[in-house]
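Fill in residues.
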């Protein structure tokens, strides 16, 4: 049997066979509330009101329903960042203990690589980078300070 379909703009399409109706349902051009009439009738009614077409409204058994993602499906699990520890080491490296500056520089560099690779929590990127920079500054200041001490020692030794 063939049918006519009335779109929302009141245009009529048809005659349509069941295969065409099935395709249009799949494309979203029609639904159960779409107005249809059989080719031998002038009475419009919802597609769901035609028993012979109601089976077309049921999802196809040949294609399994798409699984609905769980709310946690988008959550990515990252390794926790160590930004606060690295920043603390960096500040202490500047203030008093240059080996902690070296540790902050190395740890910060490694953690930044992991953050950029998507393996570590990206929320710690700025604090980790700040700690790394403090570690670099602390290390450079320590090297300059040690160099100055060696220079002073060498000058004192040469005057003896």
């Amino acid at each position: 049997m063939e049918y006519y379909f009335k779109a929302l703009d009141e245009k009529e399409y048809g005659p349509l066979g069941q295969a065409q109706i099935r395709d249009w349902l799949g494309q979203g051009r029609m639904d159960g509330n779409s107005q249809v009439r059989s080719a031998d009738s002038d009475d419009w009614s919802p597609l769901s009101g035609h028993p012979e077409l109601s089976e077309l409204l049921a999802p196809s058994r040949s294609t399994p329903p798409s699984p609905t993602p769980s709310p946690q499906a988008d959550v990515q699990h990252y390794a926790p960042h160590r930004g606060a520890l690295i920043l603390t080491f960096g500040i202490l490296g500047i203030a008093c203990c240059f080996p902690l500056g070296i540790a902050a520089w190395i740890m910060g560099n490694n953690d930044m690589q992991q953050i950029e690779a998507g393996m570590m929590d990206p929320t710690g990127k700025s604090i980790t980078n700040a700690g790394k920079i403090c570690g670099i500054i602390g290390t450079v200041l320590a090297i300059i300070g040690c160099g100055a001490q060696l220079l002073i020692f060498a000058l004192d030794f040469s005057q003896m």
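The first strand starts at residue 3 and ends at 6.
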